[in-house]
Structure formats: structure tokens, C-alpha cells
Amino acid sequence: MPTVAMTVNGKSVAGNVEGRTLLVQFLREHLQLTGTHVGCDTSQCGCCTIHLNGKGVKSCAVLALACEGADVVTIEGLATGGTADVKLHPMQEAFREHHGLQCGFCTPGMIMSAVDMVKRKGHDLDEKAIRKQLEGNICRCTGYHNIVLAVQAGAAAMKGN
Amino acid sequence: MYDFAYLKPASLSDAANQLASPDSKLLAGGMSLIPSLKLRLNRYATLVDLGALADLKGIRREGDALVIGAMTPHAEVAASDEVLTVLPALASLAEGIGDPLVRNRGTLGGSIANADPAADYPAAVVGLGASVITNRRTITADDFFKGVFETALQPDEIITAVRFPIPKRAAYAKYRQPASRFALVGVFAVQSANGVRVAVTGAAPSVFRLAAAEAALIKRFAVAALDGITLDTEGLNSDIHASAEYRAHAVVEMTKRAVAAALK
């Protein structure tokens, strides 16, 4: 079985995978990083969004072996500090503050996608821009109202960081 | 998804050699290929990933054309200052493909090699009269697309870049299928020193040129020149999203919108 090595959330990791092993399977089943969710598994819903070499992508449509040597950040890699002194990423904090979730299943993907959005489009985002840029993420509770508020606040808060 | 051998060649010649073995398939961004493998619509013994070939990525100006590497992601085309300046219609088309996460990964070469009947890029390639450059030859846009998911590419041929001539004016008007974000109908209209070209995607098994509109627009490049033009429904796609009659009507309407946008 081929081996793959990459950096995930700042740590060097490696594992034996099949050709067909998806990045999301490697993250969840090999590394036990289950914060990255599998929603539709047909690359529509965006629950599996992670950052691959600094860009938001759907990890259910990327092969693990294609990420040899890559830098991957998952939802677990956004906060800083340890369990005792954890400091949430400004976008995570904004989702908490604005209750940008209902059931919470899509939330990791929403947050990873939102951080990617700020990198591409900047900190001053209006509702229309946010809704357009969130097209790749589906909230099946349809709780978009607070998600949009959270992204807007999180984007502004990221300015200071 | 059935298992396969995964190869990531370090050179174009290695990629071509690996692709020559039976039942091999190129992997670009994988935004169509991987979902189709997961659904077991396709099965290959070997995938040859072009991800390590940095030469296949990038956008450069060459005289009166833009040359875009086959492995350039849609997001880079959409955000490129060069493209936004000399060929904004292409940047806007790229910005409308899929969603932001797909655009970060999906590539120009992958899109046209896949030749999905409802993909956006084929309309730009044919509309602009682009040239598809491979590891062996240059294929003109009019000879490239052959049918549903079918192109002129040989099984072991690799697209390296696409050369887009810079037109006088151009625009892409897309009536989007809201769930898939593919084109229900998309029209790329171009006026250049060589004349007028109008390419339609989403409406038929493959991208095609709208001869009646081109003939009218070459006399006068104006929305009013398209009055009275109709499209025969023969051979048009008909599905749960839109009938052939609906698409025929939408093609003419989208052509008018593309011309109006090109004149802005």
C-alpha cells in the first residue's frame, strides 16, 4: 500500500493509504480528525471543506495521495492554545457569538470556507457577497441568516489578527 | 470508488508514457473525475496526476493572445489582472463555474478535456476561436469538441495550454441551472478582427456555433440585429430541467444578452 506524508495543522503526519483513499478519509479515519464532516459525499455540500496549501477545497473530492508534501489545515487547526487556554479563531468566535448554526453539522465547512473567503475577498463583505461566496456550502437546516451575520462579523474581526 | 494505481509524474514525457498504458486516465483538478469515480460511473486501472507539473500552470500574454496553462485553476483565471484587463469575459466566465471551493481546484484543461455538454469553458474556447495546445500538436477549437464528453484528443495526448486570441469585444451570458451551477444555456459572443463568433453550451450534446446569429451580427453587431432569429429544436437537449423548446428560446435570449454585455 502506498504511503503519504503531509503537514496537517502544523504537524508532520504519514500513513498507508490506497490510491482511492480520499483526503477526508485520511483526515477522519487515519488521523481521527473528525471535525471535518462528510455531508453529501458528492462534492455539493461543502461540509468537508479544509485548506489545502492555503486554499479552501472540498476534501471529499481530493485524493489523499495527491496531497503528498502538502500543507493542510482543518477546523481543528484554527484555534490556538491548549485545552486549558484555548483561543478560538475570530471566525469561530463570531459563529459562537452570532449563533451561526442550528444543528451544527455544516459548521466546520462553513467556517473553513468563510476564512478562505476573507483571504480571497477581504474583510469588508456585504450580505450579497457573502451569500454568493458561500455557494459551495449548504446548511440543510437553512439557517443562513445567522451564518451570514457571523461571517460578516468574523471577517471584520480577522482584520485585527 | 474502485481502487486504482495512482501515479504522479514529474515530467510531461513521463506523464505521456504512463498514460499510454491501457485503462489509464489523466487527473487534473479532479472536480468531475473524482465524483464520477465515486459514483462508479467510470473505472480506471491507473490515474496519472498532473499536479506536479508546474509548467502547465500560469497565465501569460503572447502577442495578441493570452496563453493559459492547462492546470491553471478557475480561481486564478477569475482573479488574474492580465485576464481582467484584456479578456474580462473569460474572467467572468471562470468566476461563474461551480462554487469557490471548486474554482480553487478545478482546471481549464480538465474542463475542456472532460467536455461536459453543460460546462462553461467550451463556450469560451469555441467562441474565441482558441487553439488547444497538446504535447503533440495544436488543435483548433472548431475541431476539438466532438460530442458528449468527447474530444479530438488521442487516448495518450495531454493538453498543455490554451491560446485565446484577444478579441475586440466579447461577453458570456449564462442561464444557470441553480442547483448544479452548470449552464442550462450559455452563450459566448465575440467580435474580433476576424469577424463574429457565437458559441453555445448547455443546449446540445456538445458546444456549437450559432451560424444564423453570426451572419446577422457580422453585418451589424447590435442586439437588434438578432430580431427574428429562431433556433430549430432538432438535436437540442431536453431533460427535467428544460425542454428543447425552452432551450431554443433561451439560446436566442442569451445571445442577445451576451451581445448587449459585449457592447457595454
CATH-defined fold name of the largest domain in chain A = Ubiquitin-like (UB roll)
Query: How far apart are the first and last residues' alpha carbons of chain A, in Å?
Result: 42 Å
Structural class by secondary-structure content of chain B? alpha+beta
Major beta sheet, strand line-up of chain A: 2-1-5-3-4
Please give the share of residues in helix of chain A: 25-40%
Look at the helices and sheets of chain A and give the structural class. alpha+beta
CATH homologous superfamily of the largest domain in chain A - what is it? Beta-grasp domain
The count of DSSP E runs of length 2 or more, i.e. the number of strands of chain A, is 5
Please state the second-level CATH architecture of the largest domain in chain A. Answer: Roll
Structural domains of chain A: how many:
2
Strand percentage of chain B lies at 25-35%
Radius of gyration of chain A: 15 Å
Q: Based on the structure given, which CATH architecture of the domain at 169-263 in chain B is correct?
A: 2-Layer Sandwich
Please explain how this structure is put together.
The complex is a heterodimer of chains A (161) and B (264). In chain A, helix 2 packs antiparallel against helix 5 and helix 3 crosses helix 5. Chain A has 161 residues and is α+β, with helices and mostly antiparallel strands. Chain A starts with a strand and ends with a helix. In chain A, 32% of the residues lie in helices and 14% in strands. Chain A folds into 2 domains: 75 residues, Ubiquitin-like (UB roll), CATH 3.10.20.30; 71 residues, Orthogonal Bundle (DNA polymerase, domain 1), CATH 1.10.150. Chain A contains 5 helices and 5 strands; from the N terminus they run ββαβββαααα. Chain B is globular. In chain B, strand 8 and strand 9 form a beta hairpin. Chain B has 11 helices and 14 strands. The longest helix of chain B has 20 residues. In chain B, the strands form 4 sheets. In chain B, strands 4-5-10-6-7 form a 5-stranded antiparallel β-sheet. A 4-stranded antiparallel β-sheet of chain B has the order 11-12-13-14, sandwiched between helices. Chain B has a 3-stranded parallel β-sheet with strand order 1-3-2, with helices on one face. Among the domains of chain B are: 49 residues, Uridine Diphospho-n-acetylenolpyruvylglucosamine Reductase, domain 2, CATH 3.30.43; 95 residues, CO dehydrogenase flavoprotein, C-terminal domain (Enolase-like, domain 1, 2-Layer Sandwich), CATH 3.30.390. The chains are: A alpha+beta (161), B alpha+beta (264).
